[in-house]
Every structure is written in structure tokens, then in C-alpha cells.
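seq:
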Amino acid sequence: MARPVTIQTPLSEDSILQLKIGDRVLLNGVIMTARDAAHKRLIDLIQQGKELPFDLAGSVIYYVGPAPAKPGMAVGSAGPTSSYRMDPYTPPLLERGLKGMIGKGQRGPEVVQSMKKNNAVYFAATGGAGALLSKAIKASEIIAYQDLGPEAIRKLIVADFPVIVVNDCKGNDLYQAGRSQYETAS
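struct:
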């Protein structure tokens, strides 16, 4: 099995174009967190023509609401949430420079098309492994919507945060490819 690809954030066009479905990736640098309520607020700001609380250019958003940190940790358990819940909000963010998303589960066809159009990628983090994933998070800072509690937007500093490419910028889908491969083999 090939070694994981190490990528620094913010994501560059070159790094995105080289990723293929199934690639194992270790992310390093800054990733942002946002879930449903925060995404709605971001879209409201866009519709009002107001500035967002962080720069979307090259950014990665992790769909997570981390548990409270234990002593010596930046966050508590930090497992991914189901990504489809962010689908209605994703294309406008991709159009404004978002380049990566981390979650679990499939994305809708409109999101996949928008990723293809905007050269973006969707990564999966392992569901059920939140305690292990939190070990790759070195620092956490709430930057917006503190009233949302664990769903506030956070800036995370990560080191070797493990993800897998599920949708690449060419529109390929690991879930569909895997299903197709299994059905052909049966």
C-alpha cells in the first residue's frame, strides 16, 4: 500500500489537481470547523454581502463539533459528522475559494459538480475514531459564533491529520468506484 501523501494547508491548486480518489492524505496546518448552523450563518453573510469570519481561499472545513478538551489536549473527541447536511450550503462556499471539506458519507450530485467546477476535494475522516483523530489536533481557537457551543467555528492547527480522498476535483467518487468494483467482482 502506498504511503500517505503529506499536504500543507491552505490547499494549493497543484496539490488538489494531483489527488485521486482513494489517496491517503496527512493534512498539516490550519483547518476550520463548521457544521449546519455555522454554515447557515456563513451563507446569510454571503447573501447580505458581508465579510466572512475567515478567508475561504484554499481553506479546508472539517464538519465536526469537538467534545470539550481534557487536560493537555487541544480538543476532546473530534469525529466527523455526516456531510450531506452541509450540501445545501457548500456550492456558494466553493465558488468563493473553499478547496477542501472533511466529513463522512457521500455528497450530493450538485456538490460533486461544484467541486469539479471549482477544483476542490472532499476528504473522509474515519467515523467512530474521534478520540484518535483529536490527537492530530495541536491547537484550537474559536473564531466565530461562540453561542453555538461545540458547533462554533474553530481554527484548528493539525499535524498529520489522516484523511482519505473520497471525491477528487475531476468528479470521481470513491464510494461509487468501490461499489462498482464489488458488483463487478461478484
